[in-house]
Amino acid sequence: MSERENGGGGFGWGFFVGGLLGLVAGAYLASGPGRDQVDQLRTQTIELTGPDSIMRARARAAAGKARTAVSDPEHPLRRAVQEGVTAARRRRAELEAERDDVSPAAPVTPPLEG
């Protein structure tokens, strides 16, 4: 009992000191003032997403390939998508038919005693 009364604040003090150390470490590791960082990020974003960026060209090329794959009826991807859609429609029809065939359960009445 006396141990609890004398040393009960250890966790709280450790939490407090750890928070202070984290704050100091974060402030030390942060490079440059906030405005400089925001400006630097904005510049990098414009470089990556600008009209002449390599990333934009690669994205357009990939989108073109995807459009071609989905629109070409002989492409394996298009056939796989169509087979999936057909299988889903067939399964839905089966489940709806099962639902319609199952009659509602009659109320269960206990047997008469006597």
Question: What's the multimeric state?
Answer: single chain
Class by SSE composition: mainly alpha
Q: So what's the overall shape?
A: flat
Count the helices. How many?
5
Report the average pLDDT across residues. Answer: 78
Question: Which regions are unreliable across 5 or more consecutive residues at pLDDT < 50?
Answer: none
Major sheet description: none
Overall strand count: 0
Strand content: under 5%
Distance between the termini: 68 Å
| Computed Rg | 34 Å
Helix-residue proportion? over 70%
What is the H-and-E element order?
Answer: HHHHH
Give the topology, please:
Blueprint: H1 2-7, H2 10-29, H3 34-49, H4 54-71, H5 76-101
Q: Short description, anyone?
A:
This protein has helices at residues 2-7, 10-29, 34-49, 54-71, 76-101.
General description of the model:
The chain is mainly alpha-helical and 114 residues long. The protein has helices at 2-7, 10-29, 34-49, 54-71, 76-101. The protein is flat, with a radius of gyration of 34 Å. The mean pLDDT is 78.
Name a few traits of the molecule.
114 residues, mainly alpha, 75% helix
